[in-house]
Amino acid sequence: MKENILTLYLDDSGTRHPNRTSAQLPTHGRDWFGLGGIILPDAEREEFKKKHAALVEKWSINKPLHSSEIRNCSHNFKWLGKVEAAKRQEFLQDIQALVTSPCLTAIACVKNKSSVPMQVADICLWPMCIGGYDRKNLAFSALRDANILIDCKVPQSEIAERGIKYSCWERVQ
Q1: Strands of 6-14's sheet in order across
Q2: Residue 143: which domain range?
Q3: Lowest-pLDDT choice from 116-120, 143-147, 166-170
Q4: Which DSSP category does 154 fall into?
């Protein structure tokens, strides 16, 4: 029996301090911090990468697709604000086709000021982050010793694949 491995790809959105006054809010008027992304079956990964490659080739993109840059026509996507409305719409439809690929499952956790489970998640997150740099950190050790870290719940041989992900960081242990 072939195992169906799912990989979770996460990103963040919003401010790290969702407690702004109305004068400090972004133009959309909302205040949040969210962590979310997509779940992609490994069996679909290569086909999905081909869809991405076709999109970036069609539009001559050699930088990462970045949501806020695309929405705001800024940085690497300034060109998007300078093209005809029909071309911009075509690009956005191509992006939509990519992000609505049937193989994807979108998932998110959005923090506002009043969610009790999110407050606890917030308390647990910092130790998991610092644990990438300092395995002896007391808060990280407490979570590890209580066996609530995902790394404690998957077989040792699968931690790299299914455990806490520390990527794109310098000096991570």
Answers
A1: 6-14, 33-41, 105-111
A2: 114-173
A3: 166-170
A4: S
Number of domains in the chain: 1
CA distance 52 to 64: 11
Residue 12: Cβ-neighbour burial (10 angstroms; 0-12, 13-18, 19+): exposed
Please give the structure tokens belonging to residue 71. Answer: 């929405």
Lowest mean pLDDT among 83-92, 116-125, 130-139, 149-158: 116-125
153 close to 112: Cβ distance less than 8 angstroms? no
CA-based nearest residue to 125, from 5, 1, 7, 10: 10
Q: What is the C-alpha separation between 26 and 24, in angstroms, rounded?
A: 7
Within a domain: 121: yes
- With a CB cutoff of 8 Å and minimum separation 6, the contacts of 109 are 34, 35, 36, 118, 121
